[in-house]
């Protein structure tokens, strides 16, 4: 089983926001529930450059959550990992609407705090959640108020914890020995991950895969906020306690349950699409600046922010600083901008195209990583 558990998914952000919040009254009496929330809480010392004051969830202000699926936590992988699934959710309680957008892992963008351009998913490898948040905030031109990350074991356990999810699969496929049949089917953890990660047999490639990822997240959310989800709260907590990190507090979750839940019933799914291009022999997704501006404007509106015309049709990529060709080096980052010798990730993007957390990825076109799993 060399690849099937790679996180292609996502999302305890939205799931955790819903789960702990919806269950708040039913399970707050249990010490294990509050203990789990405390266990997954991990604050980040950062201030958004796109808000003058921090968002107030208690006052029902619109806010955003960055959801990251990290490719570690299973198959013996214990390193930092990368955010191979990245989604941003904006929640607007006054409009009773949420927007969930998927970001391709191969998007070429400025890595904030790193000093160059690289693939979006490398931000987490270089600087953890803080660098990933800062990078996505810069890319989308919106404040990122909170984050949730989940590793691959957590997603697998979470699908089983909610009793599986039902989907309408348009065609049968087999991925790494796991067959997902055509038709209306119920997915468990293994078939669920296969359904979410397959792209080679999908006519739409990675775009189709990301659409299925969003579908899986929404299906999980629907199960979590149902009575069935409450009944299975212990399994849900077990699924997240060792595999999730978030800066949402228990009080935040209770407030969300009280004041934001109608917004989760109307989720608008978006996809930030680019064009595949090789630069220095490495595959990237290059974003169209006009389309990016449209997405930025949409998300800003959801957060109650005005249009930022300074960003209109602005191309932030000069493609001159990307790590490619025969350039080699090393980078150290602890999330504060100060070199950290205990959290160092070396890279060497030479002819072998190795990246900080190298592995063999059979699905990444024109990209070969060493040290496969």
TrEMBL record:
Query: Bias regions of kind Polar residues — which residues?
Result: 352-365
Its domain of life reads Bacteria
Which portions of the sequence form the region Disordered? 352-373
Tell me where in this chain the Cell envelope-related transcriptional attenuator domain is found: 82-225
| The family this protein is said to belong to | Belongs to the LytR/CpsA/Psr (LCP) family.
Q: NCBIfam families this protein is in?
A: lytR_cpsA_psr
Q: What is the name of this protein? A: Cell envelope-related transcriptional attenuator domain-containing protein
Give the species: Candidatus Enterococcus palustris
Classification from the root reads: Bacteria, Bacillati, Bacillota, Bacilli, Lactobacillales
């Amino acid at each position: 089983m060399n690849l099937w558990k790679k996180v292609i998914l996502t999302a305890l952000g939205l799931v955790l926001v819903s789960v702990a919040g919806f269950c708040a009254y039913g399970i707050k009496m249990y010490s294990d529930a509050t203990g789990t929330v405390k266990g997954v809480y991990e604050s980040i010392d950062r201030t958004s450059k796109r808000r003058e004051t921090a968002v107030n969830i208690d006052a029902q202000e619109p806010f955003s959550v960055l959801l990251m699926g990290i490719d570690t936590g299973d198959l013996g992988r214990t390193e930092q990992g990368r955010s191979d699934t990245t989604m941003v959710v904006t929640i607007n309680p006054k409009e009773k609407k949420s927007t969930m957008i998927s970001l391709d892992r191969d998007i070429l963008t400025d890595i904030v705090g790193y000093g160059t351009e690289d693939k979006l998913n490398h931000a987490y490898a270089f600087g953890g959640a803080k660098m990933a948040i800062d990078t996505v905030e810069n890319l989308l031109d919106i404040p990122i108020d909170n984050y949730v990350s989940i590793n691959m074991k957590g997603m697998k356990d979470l699908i089983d914890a909610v009793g599986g999810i039902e989907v309408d699969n348009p065609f049968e496929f087999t991925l790494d020995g796991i067959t997902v049949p055509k038709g209306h089917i119920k997915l468990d953890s293994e078939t669920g991950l296969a359904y979410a990660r397959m792209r080679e047999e999908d006519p739409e490639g990675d775009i189709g895969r990301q659409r299925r990822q969003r579908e899986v997240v929404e299906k999980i959310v629907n199960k979590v906020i149902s009575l069935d989800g409450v009944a299975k709260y212990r399994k849900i907590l077990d699924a997240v306690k060792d595999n999730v990190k978030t800066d949402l507090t228990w009080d935040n979750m209770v407030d969300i349950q009280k004041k934001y839940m109608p917004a989760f019933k109307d989720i608008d799914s978006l996809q930030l699409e680019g064009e595949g291009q090789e630069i220095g022999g490495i595959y990237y997704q290059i974003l169209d600046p006009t389309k990016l501006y449209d997405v930025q404007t949409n998300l800003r509106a959801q957060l109650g922010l005005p249009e930022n015309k300074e960003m209109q049709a602005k191309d932030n990529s000069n493609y001159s600083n990307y790590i490619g060709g025969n350039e080699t080096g090393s980078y150290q980052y602890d999330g504060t901008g100060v070199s950290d010798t205990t959290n160092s990730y070396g890279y060497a993007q030479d002819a072998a195209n190795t990246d900080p957390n190298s592995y063999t990825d059979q699905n990444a076109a024109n990209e070969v990583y060493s040290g496969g799993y």
